Amino acid sequence: MQSFLSKADVILKMNTEEGAHKVSLRQQPFASPEKVHDIVTETYRHVKAKVPTTQKSMSLYLANKDTEYILFKPIKVNIQQSFQHLIKLISDSYSEEDLHIIGCPSVEQLNLLLAKPGS
């Protein structure tokens, strides 16, 4: 997803330069709604698979809730910021119909996924 966000930022930055030809992000081969959907789905599945195992490993080896929280917080914040960036980017650059095709999870869904079970 980071690769997509970087490419999209370049396209959007080009659009803000004076005299530059305006290009639509959604018209780019890497940024069609279907491809963005694939990226979002793959990233969400990856996070969904890795977060619980990471939290279990931290719990097993650290056995200290405060330390686990401190060490996991930067991971959680990075994931949240990446998805928030994506949500802003797609809401600014895609139509309502495209947003439905992309199917990006909401911030609330992401927070539920990142919440430690039982806490």
Describe the protein in words:
The structure is a single chain. This protein is mainly α and 119 residues long. Helix content is 75%, strand content 0%. It contains 5 helices and no strands. The chain has helices at 2-16, 33-62, 65-93, 96-102, 107-114. The mean pLDDT is 90.
User: Would you tell me the structural class of the helices and strands?
Assistant: mainly alpha
Number of helices: 5
The helix/strand series, from N terminus to C terminus, equals HHHHH
Report the C-alpha radius of gyration, rounded.
17 Å
β-strand amount: under 5%
- Would you count the extended β strands for me? 0
Share of helix among residues? over 70%
> How far apart are the first and last residues' alpha carbons, in Å?
28 Å
On the 0 to 100 scale, the average pLDDT is 90
The global form is: elongated
Low-confidence stretches: none
The major pleated sheet works out as: none
Explain briefly what this protein structure is:
The protein contains 5 helices and no strands. The protein has 119 residues and is mostly helical.
